[in-house]
Structure prediction request, 678 residues.
Amino acid sequence: MNSLAVDIKNLCFTYPGQSAMLFSDLNLTVGAGERFGLFGPNGAGKTTLMNLMTGLLSFEQGSIRLSGNEIKKKDKSINKLFGFIPQDLSFYQELTPVENLAFFGAWSGLNSREIKQRTDELLDVLGLADVRNKPVEKFSGGMKRRINLAIGVIHQPKILFLDEPTVGVDVQTRYAIINYLKELNKKGTTLIYTSHQLSEAEDLCNTIALIDEGKIIVHNDLNTLLAEHGQNGLEGLFLNFTGKKYRNADV
Amino acid sequence: MYKLGATIIKDLRILLRDKIGLTLMFGMPILLVLVITKIQNSTFELVNKNKVVLLLANRDTGKISLEMIQAIDKIGMFKLTEVSKNTNDEQLTNRMHAKDAMLALILPQDFSAKITAKAKNVTAKAMNSFGLEGGDTLNRKAGNTDPIILYYHPILQDAFRRSVQGALHSALQMVESKQVLQQLYFSINEKPLPVSMENELLNNQSPINEVPVSRDGNRTVPNASQHNVPAWTIFAMFFVVLSLGSGIVREKLSGSFTRLKTLPTNYLVALLSKQITYLSVTMIQATLIFAIGVWLFPYMNLPALNLPEDLLGLFIVSFFCGWCAVSYAICVGVFAETQEQANGFGAVSIVILAALGGLMVPAFAMPDSFQTIIKLSPLHWCLEAYYGLFLEGGKLSDVWMNIIPLIVIAVLIQLVTVWGLKRKKLI
Prediction:
């Protein structure tokens, strides 16, 4: 078994039509089983890096390996290794939770028996069993977030990418989602998480990297970093490295 | 296959819950077919059965003008409403502005006298040319009659106006010929033309039998339903662009598409599913519209649609029409950046392609410069194939040459779609 969930080497990336390179020789590793948090100010490159790791964006130079598999190859079977929870609600609002899971489960490579089993498990554990046959468009924001999560983990991925998975939800839903993610991690799923909710991140992540202007400026175990820099929390550490100036993303 | 099946089920579920989309794809085309066929049918009836009101001001006092009125009435095309001979032009046109009538005819003063003089003049010329004594032919003025004035409402279409003019000319010709004949007979025999001979000479025209060309020997004259139902069914099929094209854009813009791209399945599966789902939709559209034509039209005082004998041929033509329509809709959806673009471009382009394809004006009536362009419209080939079956009584073997270009166009559209998907890094 590969000990690295993510292994990025000498990654170079430039957005089409832009002259400045966003990533130049970027290197990053995430160990298997880690709860890794990627943080940075707006426009730092978090979402771009997440999109590169999930194959949503393609790159010319360097390499990204997920559990030892090169993602640059146009082999869609690599995508079975990971799940992705985008910041946007990524499902069909017209369908019910069961119908959404049936479709995305099939696209994730599961058969009907596996889909049924996983659907029952997930709806139960995420508190959606009672509304399994109701159209998602009538759900509250928190319920929709839980569906978003369920779809991303239906195929029990080895690596789970989470882009602000709890944005806009109430305290109860956040608590439930974070607990569920910790449970997944205990079962061996590597979490790659990004968010601006630093208190939540502090609760979830054991390893973090700070990224700014396309560069990894610090990467280590969270507790070690806090101790080294004399900070009580992630917010202080974040401001210590990235400063207090406003950041505007390139427009 | 399991992924494809799951995707088709997903697409069907979304489609069935989209009430507006279903209305656009089924309700609107059915309404369109009903309305257009009803209008076209009433136009046919206007010419063939219904009579159009013609105001008639007879300013003449002679009997030839009365014969002229009888001749016009005999045509059977007009409902004559005689007005006082003192009615002036302004009063007549005012009644037409009030839509009392679409046409008004003024027979000028001395109409009878001038027709008689003209007949005498023609007779004299004829007698002189035979070497007989025919009288004075030097009265040039007698050869000219004052014009009959026909007022028409500008909403009348040119083709209808021309048919009115043709009918009036034929009535006038009949009256003038009768006068010439009577004069000629009198000049030779010095007695009036017997009525029996007059009838034999003037009213004994050779009949014209209208026979529609058909491949199956069926001589039923095509009606408004035969013309309109196939044409507007094609239009309905291509209008899936509104639901399918914008649906693809909506999916592209939504988060679900982002997730789909991260899953271990090629997006082509989604497009294949949409083709199967919406091809089924177009086939249901065609079946529904044809069924309405066959069974519902007679209850609405419309001529029933007669289905072609070759039902397999009808299925295959409908299948390829539908496939081409779905391919076009997917192509629009792939290239459009917003739903507004997909809906706007999709709808306008279908109307243009329909116009070019001969759905609105028959292709043979288009100018020469358009004869090449119309062949680029898939709707043209669909229409030709349907007309081959519905109007000409043809079989599948008779319309293959229309199906092949349709397949070529559909394949080209599919290739452009795949190129667009690659260019946009969607596959």
Notes: Chain B has a mean pLDDT of 86. The first strand of chain B starts at residue 52 and ends at 58. The longest helix of chain B spans residues 158-189.
